[in-house]
Amino acid sequence: SMSVVEHVREMAAAGLHSNVRLLSGLLLTMSGNNPELFSPSQKYQLLVYHADSLFHDKEYRNAVSKYTMALQQKKALSKTSKVRPSTGNAASTPQSQCLPSEIEVKYKMAECYTMLKQDKDAIAILDGIPSRQRTPKINMMLANLYKKAGQERSSVTSYKEVLRQCPLALDAILGLLSLSVKGAEVASMTINIIQSIPNLDWLSVWIKAYAFVHTGDNTRAINTICSLEKKSLLRDNVDLLGSLADLYFRAGDNKNSILKFEQAQMLDPYLIKGMDVYGYLLAREGRLEDVENLGCRLFNISDQHAEPWVVSGCHSFYSKRYSRALYLGAKAIQLNSNSVQALLLKGAALRNMGRVQEAIIHFREAIRLAPCRLDCYEGLIECYLASNSIREAMVMANNVYKTLGANAQTLTLLATVCLEDPVTQEKAKTLLDKALTQRPDYIKAVVKKAELLSREQKYEDGIALLRNALANQSDCVLHRILGDFLVAVNEYQEAMDQYSIALSLDPNDQKSLEGLQKMEKEESPTDATQEEDVDDMEGSGEEGDLEGSDSEAAQWADQEQWFGMQ
User: Fold this and answer.
1) Of 56, 45, 53, 55, nearest in space to 109 by CA
2) What is the pTM of this model?
3) pLDDT digits (tens, 9 = 90+) for 245-268
4) 3-class SS string, 2-29
5) In terms of Cα–Cα distance, which of 13, 58, 6, 54 is closest to 27?
6) Can you tell me the distance from the alpha carbon of 520 to that of 417, in angstroms, rounded to the nearest whole number?
7) 474-521 CATH
8) What number of CA atoms fall less than 13 Å from residue 536's CA on the CB side?
9) Regarding the domain delimited by 272-365, which CATH topology (the fold level of the hierarchy) does it fall under?
10) Neighbour count for residue 57 (Cβ, 10 Å)
């Protein structure tokens, strides 16, 4: 007949975790009260099955303590078993073969430690496993942990080990590329499998594409992924579309980015990855209702991912509710400490709340996680400018320009800093002209150039620049600035049209509203008094909102300490 421990093992194998937990708990008490009741190997098994059921109930700290006891029991077990002469496998009892694997126990412990955010302990326990005995999942977990801890060489070694064991481990390939291992070297590790299996010829192109992604060469990455996407067999792949959307976003082409995100979302209504960037783009465009709907949809899919919290936080941020945005960003970081978008959200909220030094810490961490993303550097540079550290901003902008290369985006970022210093106005001009030669429709460059022309009161030039930029695209800010320039040359009727277009694109654009109201006052001096009353009422309405967000600040403040605020 089966022993009671075998019954526990059978229930564990059958997935009856709650039943295992109760029975093993009772049996362990019996064993404590009478140490002779179970053999060392039976005690080891009971402890492991009990710990597994705790793990299943997400009680990680308790599980770790039981796994640790199990390993001690196993030590005692191997000491006693060494006494017996072993003649190869023949002598090993059938029972020892169904003992839970010690390596599996260590892997489970490492999982517990990562859930408890004790990465050092997780690394220590996996590191203790001799490299010959490490399974692919152990190597993969180690590689990710090393990478997170900044131990890049150990990380590379572990990823390579995963690929040696499983040459089609694509995430390990991405891991290597993200640690600046050359695409050619990575491809050479998979070449045998590509040649031996039909319909895998796309894989070398795929590796090439993501090598470009990780060196920050957005243009070639976009072209390479587009070439994959056109292949009939890989058409409509959600991962490729998501990567494309992200690359367009990095390249500052928000229109195409939004289009690709929409396409991906239509193909997979449960898509979560990348939706935080999508929400941010919609919020930037003033489409706050769409952002709200997206957030609700994502929360329905999963509230255990960072993305829904970030999307909701973007809605708060662009509604000027910074305390709430800060709380939501912190919650997202708690769920996923690698979420760049969450770090950027929290950093921007801190900056707008005047907590610039804390904001800087968040932007730096974002840069560490995504060294090829320009927006991380932009956030940091805005912090430096906000705290009048123009020199630090200049050093940073020059570094970005050197490391990411001279393209329209890095030229414009450097020009933005140069505009802040009276000494470097001419340099700013040269940089912006270079940027606009490369990309005449790059909105950020157009906006900065217009700012320069406005300072020099060259309104006609500004009007020409803006009309030219608006020929192929519609953008709220460009229409608004064109309105300002038209006012300066007394073209009131057309200025009103431009402000109206701007407001139709983004109904929340405060500056366009002010421009329009100013003009309406000038248009009808007779109704001026009446006009001002309306204005005052609106003003107080807005005040009320801001006060609301302050009392809200108090309300969120008690929550801050719970969410790993610095």
Assistant:
1) 55
2) 0.81
3) 999 999 888 889 999 999 999 999
4) CCHHHHHHHHHHCCCHHHHHHHHHHHHH
5) 6
6) 36
7) 1.25.40.10
8) 6
9) 1.25.40
10) 13
